[in-house]
Structures are given as structure tokens and as C-alpha cells.
Amino acid sequence: MSLMLKLLATTLLLSSFVHASTTGTKIEKYLDNEYGDNPRINSLKIKVIEENKLPNLKGWSSYIVAIEATLKAKPKELIKQKMIWFSNGTVITKELTRLDNGETYADIVKPKFQKEYYTKENLVYGKADAKHRVVIFSDPLCPFCKDFAPAALKFMKRYPNKFAVYYFHYPILRIHPASGIIIRAAVVAESKGIKDVSINMYKVKVDPREKDVAKILTAFNKVVGSNVTQKEIKDPSVSAQIKHDDEIARNVFVGGTPTIYLDDKIDKTRMKYKTVK
Q1: Whole-number Å distance between alpha carbons of 154 and 184
Q2: Which of 108, 124, 128, 157 has the fewest Cβ atoms within 10 angstroms?
Q3: C-alpha to C-alpha distance for 127 and 82, rounded to whole angstroms
């Protein structure tokens, strides 16, 4: 849990349902009043950036709320956080769950992938002006990613006018700490112009919990055909790219891997790229 969420936890737990207006402006005002009471917050800015009607739930909408704040203890450090709220015009709640299947609407409703997120650094295959845009958030040591990503990437690579494929590193470090080194090596290898890094790195054979950097790099270089060094993966530019990918993942509420977007919308089937014309 982020520092921002920890500081606001008591506020969020006041009640599952509280009275609020249906308009984004009123929701902003309500949340500003609630969060603004925290004595540790120096400045606070709250903005509803996206509103969507909920499927199969008449009268309810989701609201993507962006929060920017500074703390009195660290006034120069800007904290950014995004959250999803739900309202039916009478009440507002942080959680909304279907009784028939237990599915939470937070999983159903995801923000659209914004235009500014499509950066050239993340374009691994295809032309930027291709007919369809595909986004992949993945972990090279995730078993589900290994089953999906290499085959999907190879397929879309064959159609550069049809698919613009944007790859974002999203390692699940609590389960696969070795992925942290692999993705750093991948960023370096890609900057050197080595081809098919995003495909070949899934072939790295190493224990997901391995922490020996030299051992991980040896395994990576062997399958990718590179000579990435420990010094290179510590370069600030590498950290900046990984931070960028992580920020985008948080902006669109990525919660697991692989997560796939097709033409700005999340594809929970992960297979729509095979059927587009």
C-alpha cells in the first residue's frame, strides 16, 4: 500500500456508503473535504478524470479520481494516486460487488489507455500509425506470461501495418525478484538495437527467486545474444524507463500479468488481436 493510501486509510474506512452528488464536481468537493482534514497533508488536488456508466447496473457510474498531494514532512515531494469510486446519484462507495458471481466492478471498470501513454520507447513491433494499437504489461518469469506473450508477439510482429505493439515491463517482484534484473537487462539490450528482446527474454532459465545478479545476467545474455553488464543495468536511464512503465501501469490500474489492451480498451480475453480485421 502506498504512503498516500496509508495516510488516507481512516477516511476510506468511515463507511461503505456515504451521501454524495451525481456530478463529478460534487464528488471532487466531497473527497476534498474528507481528505483535506488530514493534518499531515500540506496541499491537495482532487480531480475526476473519467466517468463511465456501469454495464448491467442501471443508474450507476464509475469515477476515476486523480489525487495529487504533498505532505508537511516532505513539501517538495509530490505524491500521485488514482482511485476508482462508484455512485448511483444517491450514495458513493469504494467497492461494488456482484452477488451472482462475486465479480467486483473495480475489476470490470478499467481506465482507457490514454494517447500520451503510447511512447516510442515502448513500441517494440509495428508502425506507430498501424491500424490497431496493442499494449502488453508482462513479467518475463510469470508462467501465464510465458504461455501468452512470446506467441502473441511473434504473431503481431508479422503484421507491422496492422499492429503497433507497445510493451511495458511489469515484474511481480514479490514472487519473481529475478525479473527485476531481467527487465533492466532488457531495457539495455533494446537500447543497443538488439532484436526480439521482448520475445527472447522469456527463454531465460533462472530460478524466479534468484538474487545473484551475475548469474541472472549470464542467463539473459545467453538467450538474447547480448553482453549487458552490471554497470549498464544501473544506469539512471534504465531506472527512468522502468519507473515510467510502472507509473503507466498504476495509471490504468494493472493488477496482474499479462494485462492486454487493444485500441485503448482492456482485453480480458487476451485474444481479440487474433480476430481483428
Answers
A1: 22
A2: 128
A3: 31
Q: What cell does 266 get?
A: 482492456
* pLDDT, tens digit, 9 for 90 and up, residues 47-63: 998 888 898 888 899 99
CA-CA distance, 126 to 148, in Å (whole number)?
18
Which three cell numbers, joined as nine digits, stand for 88?
A: 448511483
Q: Which residues share a beta bridge with 259?
A: 137
- How sure is the predictor about 12, in pLDDT bands with cuts at 50, 70 and 90? very low
pLDDT tens-digit map of 92-102: 898 999 888 88
273, 152 Cβ separation under 8 angstroms = yes
Where do runs of H (alpha helix) occur along the chain? 3-12, 24-36, 105-108, 143-157, 179-191, 197-200, 213-224, 230-233, 236-251
Contact between 84 and 253 (Cβ < 8 Å): yes
Task: Report the half-sphere exposure of 37 (CA within 13 A, side-chain side).
Answer: 10
Q: Which helix (H) or strand (E) holds 167?
A: strand 163-169
**Domains delineated in the chain:** 3-108 (no CATH), 115-274 (3.40.30.10)
* Structure-model confidence comparison of residues 277 and 134, the more confident one: 134
| First-to-final CA distance of the chain | 41
What are the angstrom distances between the C-alpha of 145 and each of 122, 134, 231?
Answer: 17, 15, 28
3-state secondary structure of 190: helix
The model's pLDDT over 111-140, given as tens digits with 9 standing for 90+, comes to: 889 999 999 999 999 999 999 999 999 999
Q: Beta strand pairing status for 18-19 and 132-138? A: unpaired
Place of cell 501465464: 144
Give per-residue burial for 119-142: e unless 16+ CB within 10 Å, then b.
Answer: eebbbbbbeeebebbbbbbbbbbb
> DSSP class of residue 21?
-
